Amino acid sequence: MKDSNFLKEQNARLLWHPMASPTDCIESPPVIVTAAEGSRIRDIDGHEAVDAVGGLWNVNLGYSCEPVKQAIADQLGTLPYYSAFRGTTNDKIIELAHELADFFGPDGMARAFFTSGGSDSVETALRLARQYHKIRGEAGRVKFLSLKKGYHGTHMGGASVNGNANFRTNYEPLLPGCHHIPAPYTYRNPFDESDPERLANLCAAALEDEIAFQGAGTIAAFIMEPILGAGGVIPPHSSFMPMVREICHRHGILLISDEVITGYGRTGAWSGARLWGVRPDMMSTAKAITNGYFPFGAVMIGERMADAFENDKSPNAFIGHGYTYSGHPVGAAAALACLAETRRLNVIESAAARGTELFDGLLALKDKHEQIGDVRGGHGLMLAIECVSDRATKTADIDMPLKVQKVAYDNGAMVRAAGPNLLMSPPLVLTSEDVQIIIAALDAGFSAL
Ligand SMILES: Cc1ncc(COP(=O)(O)O)c(C=O)c1O
User: Fold this and answer.
1) Ligand 1 nearest-atom number relative to CA 225
2) DSSP string covering 230-295, please?
3) Total number of domains constituting the chain
């Protein structure tokens, strides 16, 4: 390996980083992470920190999950790749589809379609939604509705249903026929409503209004995250997703639950939809399905859709969609091991318990630091602090999170700065001691402002 001087000198010079500006990366080079163990990462200078980002919402079981590592190594030895396009398959995806049907059975999911990650899963779900309506003779249902502040990856369809200008403006024009309604975001919303339940009702009414305006017969699907993640961790009131389910059902609109973050236990429930008692028509999943060790995803498809596709013998039901790596045997082997370990450790319990400890700690920080405008969490290990330069006027501050992040890292915790927010999504195997380190590091970060 090249020495550390070479690596530091070359850092970010010959590659562009995702979700970053090339010049910022040169001026403020990214941390070079060289090793990780348990819930901690180590950088090129040997500095260690609790990874409160959990990789990128995906390393739910931490960095030392031997069964997943072993499954990957074993699978590379027996079958490192084979295609799952028409005519061939592999043993691992047959087994994984069986496991997933069981895991997501309580959510009404019956079939899997494999992908290489979250954006692929979202794209797949959007495309299958349109095809479903065509199969059933409603070819006019082509539009998509979604929430402002939602994040659904960066493929063209996913970016079009995204609800954040940062991921849209420079890439426009996006897909026509994608329309957004206000998010149930109590801290800031066009209704000036801070009561979560009343706000949920207003957002549901906005959905009804948009459906009436567009015409239900033109809409294929509504896609939402059960708890909005990258948009700033926005948990809706518990009534919101059930109301959305009912509205979609009444208008013949499919409901896609984007579970790329919330699937596999992060919220303290096995899926975000289950947290809210909702059975969607499809779920897009990825990230923690392999603990982040292999790029992989699965779209889960509900009974109703499965029936429509499987009972249609015409060319309409031919799935003209898929990726070279759909059903990659190494990813599937990793996912099988990961699911087994996820269940064995029953991570929903630790997600809920550590999530409560961290949420309480962040709320205490809010009492201490004026710059914390809002703290969001309360459902497992998805949390955010929204930074403001003035609490009374809620003036957003997008430089502050970067400053806090830097000091917090020096003090032993990696958190993620995204716009005015500090986002936290640590491994679900985090200890109470790790939680305290994160809180103390953030305290140091805000104290240094
Ligand atoms: C809810 C949601 N959907 C989709 C994606 C896109 O996933 P990926 O980055 O694996 O393409 C993400 C990524 O964070 C996500 O949070």
Assistant:
1) 1
2) TTT-BPPPTTHHHHHHHHHHHTT-EEEEE-TTTGGGTTSSSSHHHHTT---SEEEE-GGGGTTSS-
3) 2
Domain annotation covers residue 92: yes
Q: Are residues 340 and 352 in the same domain?
A: no
Tens digit of each residue's pLDDT, the chain (449 residues): 689 999 999 999 999 999 999 999 999 999 999 999 999 999 999 999 999 999 999 999 999 999 999 999 999 999 999 999 999 999 999 999 999 999 999 999 999 999 999 999 999 999 999 999 999 999 999 999 999 999 999 999 999 999 999 999 999 999 999 999 999 999 999 999 999 999 999 999 999 999 999 999 999 999 999 999 999 999 999 999 999 999 999 999 999 999 999 999 999 999 999 999 999 999 999 999 999 999 999 999 999 999 999 999 999 999 999 999 999 999 999 999 999 999 999 999 999 999 999 999 999 999 999 999 999 999 999 999 999 999 999 999 999 999 999 999 999 999 999 999 999 999 999 999 999 999 999 999 999 99
Q: Residue 211 sits in which domain range?
A: 68-344
Residue 13 domain flag: no
What angle do helix axes 66-78 and 329-344 make, rounded to 10 degrees?
Answer: 160
Is residue 367 classed exposed, middle or buried when 0-12, 13-18 and 19+ CB atoms within 10 A define those classes?
exposed
Q: What is the pTM of this model?
A: 0.98
Tell which one of 154, 225, 261, 416 to mutate to probe ligand 1, the residue whose CB is within 8 A of the most ligand atoms. Answer: 261
CA dist 364 and 142 (Å) reads: 47
The CA 184 to ligand 1 mean position distance, Å, reads 20
**Claim to verify: residue 369 and residue 431 sit in the same structural domain:** yes
Question: Are 287 and 380 members of one domain?
Answer: no
Has residue 24 been placed in a domain? no
